[in-house]
Design a protein that fits this description.
The chain is of the alpha+beta class. The protein is built from four helices and two strands. The protein has a two-stranded antiparallel ribbon with strand order 1-2. Helix 2 crosses helix 4 and helix 3 (67-74) packs across helix 4 (76-83). The N and C termini lie far apart (40 Å).
Length: 91
């Protein structure tokens, strides 16, 4: 009989908050940011903001007054994410 599996939540949390995972997430976000920059042009500020919650993560932001419109009308962030191999779906 197989031994019951028990998830080590503290261990998984430690891994997800590690520098290595944060670095990987930031690296992918930098790739998305670069792809967005090629779409929106050099005059538009695109930021990559790493952060940690229950895991390492990073946000890509079009830091322009028309940034939301660029996503809404052209899908700039979605296209950039797809261009680097991420799967983009709507909720």
């Amino acid at each position: 009989m197989a031994k019951p599996f028990r998830l080590n939540r503290a261990g998984v949390g430690k891994i997800l908050k590690s520098d290595e995972v944060t670095s990987m997430a930031t690296g992918v976000a930098e790739q998305v940011g670069a792809a967005v920059r090629t779409q929106v042009g050099p005059d538009v500020l695109v930021r990559v903001d790493p952060y940690t919650t229950d895991r390492g993560a990073a946000a890509v932001v079009i830091a322009d007054q028309h940034g939301a419109a660029m996503q809404a009308s052209d899908g700039a962030l979605s296209k950039a994410a797809a261009a680097v191999g991420l799967t983009v779906t709507s909720k």
